[in-house]
Amino acid sequence: MDFWDLTKLLFRRWYISGPLLLFTVAGTLMAASRIEPDYIATSYVQLVPPAVTPRLTDSKAPQPKNPWLDLGVSSLGKAGMLTVQDQKVVEVLAKAGFSDDFTLELDQSLPIVTFEVIGHTDRQASSTAEELIKRFEASVRALQNEYGAPKDQLVTIRQLDLGDNVTESTSKVKRALVAIGGIGLLLTVALTIAFDALLRRRKPREPVAAPEPAASPAPDPVVPLNGHAVVNRQVDVPRPRSKSADETQAIVIGEDRTVRLRPNQRTPDDKG
Predict the structure, then answer these.
(1) What pLDDT, in 10s, does the model give residues 109-152?
(2) Which domains can be identified in the chain, with CATH numbers?
C-alpha cells in the first residue's frame, strides 16, 4: 500500500480517521499549553594568573612556589571543573532545589570556562549558575592551597558576564509536540487500517453466478414445395449410376414424391 492508497483509505473511512485526527490535534494543543519551556543560563569565567612574578633570591633555601603555574592555568581550570561536576556535588545541588542539568566547557585556546545551566524557571537557571561559579572558585583556591602556594602566586577567577544571561528555550516543547503528533498520526493510520480489514473480513462474499446454458440452434426453416411442406435441408443425393439397361433410375423430389422411369419411357407430361 503506497501513500496514495493510504490517503484514499483514510478518506473512505473518515468516520474512523476523522475523530482520531481531531483527538490527536486536541492532545497536541493541550500539551503545548501545559508543557513549560526551559530556561538556559550561560556564564563565562576566566582564570587569571598572578600579576607578580616570584622574586629571585640568592638564598639556597627552598622558596614557596605555585606548581599549577608550571602545569598551566588551563590545567588548574580543568581540575576545578572535574571537582564541580562530581556526582555527589550534583546530588547536593538537586536536593537544595538547584538544577542538576548543567555543563562546563573549557576553551581550547584560552583559559575560559563556559557554564551552561538548564532550569525549569529563569530564577532556577540563574541561581544554579551562581552556585556553580562559587563552587568552582572555591575548588580552584583549595587546589592551590593544598600545595602551599603563596598568596602573590595564586591564580584567581573572574566572571566575564553580569549573571543575567538567561534565554528561553522551546526545544523541549517542540520535541514533545512532535512526539505526541507523530504517535497520534501512527495510531490513526493503524486503527483505520485494522478497522477496514475487519469490515472486509465480515462482509459476506457474493455468490458466483452459474454459467448460462448455451442457446439451442434454431430449427431449420420450412420451405413449401408443390403444396407440400418440405424441410429445407441439404440432403446428399447420390448420383445414379446405370449398371444395366433394365435398372430403374430414381429421382427424389422432396421427401415423398418419387417417379420411377424405365428406359425409353415418357412421362405423362410428354404426351401429345
Answers:
(1) 889 999 999 998 989 999 999 999 999 999 999 999 998 888 88
(2) 3-51+64-175 (3.30.70.1130), 223-263 (no CATH)
Are 169 and 37 in contact by the 8 Å Cβ rule? The answer is yes
d(CA 272, CA 83): 155
For the record, the C-alpha cell of 153 comes out as 602566586
Label each residue of 176-188 as H, E or C. HHHHHHHHHHHHH
Helices 122-145 and 73-84 pack at an angle, to 10 degrees, of: 120
What whole-number distance in Å separates Cα of residue 146 and Cα of residue 66? 10
This prediction has a pTM of: 0.59
| pLDDT band per the 50, 70, 90 thresholds, residue 14 | confident
DSSP for 123-151, please give it: HHHHHHHHHHHHHHHHHHHHHHHTTT--G
Contact present, 160 and 44 (Cβ < 8 Å): yes
How many Cβ atoms sit within 10 Å of the Cβ of residue 35?
16
Q: Is residue 264 classed as helix, strand or coil in its secondary structure?
A: coil
C-alpha span between 11 and 261 (Å, rounded) = 91
pLDDT at residue 79, as a whole number: 93
Amino acid at position 221, single letter? P
Percent of the chain with pLDDT over 70: 69
Cβ-Cβ contacts under 8 Å for 202 (sequence gap 6 or more): none
The model's confidence at residue 202, banded by pLDDT at 50, 70 and 90, is: confident
Q: For residue 137, give the C-alpha cell.
A: 572558585
Residue 237, amino acid: V
